[in-house]
Specification:
Helix content: 40-55%
CATH architecture of the largest domain: 3-Layer(aba) Sandwich
Distance between the termini: 72 Å
Order of helices and strands: HHHEEHEHEEEEHEHEHEEH
CATH class of the largest domain: Alpha Beta
Largest sheet: 9 strands, mixed
């Protein structure tokens, strides 16, 4: 019968094998032999009293209980590494740990974070993209950029979102330079959870009456942007999700009034990290980027 863990020595091996799905690759990262990794995990399985992996000829996969434990172990080791770095002190100002949503990380932050690192090459960026809320008292998180209801009086608000209609240039007929509101009935209209945002945009531009074909619903804004990139139709997305693609010319915007959105992005800071130079540098950079994005949005509607 299993009891409490008497040793934590196998947790690092387990975490590494869980990430790689392979004892061999985990061994390479840890500079051990695959047999040594396998032995550590076997001993951990004996200590816990349940199987952590299903062994296959060329790989291993986590069991259901193994998946649950892998999540807990990854967080535990991350917290431990963050605490060690904080106690060491000299590395704390050199590492900026950012938590944000998948969509914001993929469609906005990652494409332009290189500009920040060019400006501040001494700061090592760590981005954790997770749609779950994080504990800002956790030492492993410095700042969080979160999507939620926008209060214009909130000093943490960095961008009040708007909804725009975007499409791939591949949809343009020969000789036509841009699609307009008059072209909407000719294409599938891609929407979110409901068609309400499309209705708001049509109402804003006084073209509510029309034979519109609402074709596909994708709840995630980044997915709707990707659907537009794939030429599936004209998609309504948050401007943040479309911004980089519009700058690159891989997406075009319908020139019209954007639709209102009650949500926006807030910059939240770990209260124990507030005032640190790395935090203030990122805040300044983010504010500058958001000002430029807001100007681009206003210019597109002009």
């Amino acid at each position: 019968m299993s009891g409490p863990l008497r040793s934590l020595s196998g947790l690092v091996d387990f975490d590494c094998a869980a990430r790689w799905g392979s004892f061999k690759l985990a061994a390479q990262e840890l500079h051990k032999t695959p047999a040594a990794v396998s032995l550590q995990i076997k001993q951990l399985e004996e200590a816990t009293g349940f199987a952590l992996f299903i062994r296959h000829p060329r790989q291993v996969t986590l069991t259901e209980k193994g998946q649950d434990l892998a999540v807990a172990v990854a967080k535990f080791l991350g917290d431990l590494q963050g605490k060690v770095a904080a106690l060491q002190g000299h590395d704390e100002e050199k590492v900026l740990r950012i938590s944000t949503t998948h969509s914001f990380a993929i469609k906005w932050l990652v494409p332009r974070i290189g500009d920040f690192t060019k400006r501040y090459p001494d700061i090592d960026i760590r981005i954790d993209s997770n749609d779950k809320l994080v504990d800002l008292d956790d030492a492993s998180i410095d700042i969080a950029i979160r999507f939620g209801l926008a209060d214009l009086a909130d000093p943490a608000l960095v961008f009040a979102e708007r909804m725009v209609a975007v499409y791939s240039p591949a949809l343009l007929p020969p000789g036509q330079e841009a699609l307009t509101l008059a072209d909407l009935p000719r294409f599938p209209l891609i929407y979110g959870d409901t068609t309400e945002t499309w209705i708001q945009l049509l109402r804003e531009n006084r073209v509510l009456k029309g034979d519109y074909h609402f074709a596909r619903g994708y709840s995630n804004a980044a997915v709707r942007a990707q659907a537009a990139l794939a030429g599936q139709g004209i998609s309504i997305v948050s401007f943040t999700a479309a911004y980089q693609d519009v700058l690159n010319g891989t997406l075009n915007m319908i020139a019209c009034r954007s639709a209102p959105c009650e949500y926006g992005y807030r910059l939240l800071v770990n209260r124990r990290k507030a005032g640190m130079p790395k935090i203030e540098r990122f805040r300044l950079w983010l504010t500058e980027e958001m000002v430029q994005m807001r100007a681009a949005l206003e210019g597109a509607a002009a």
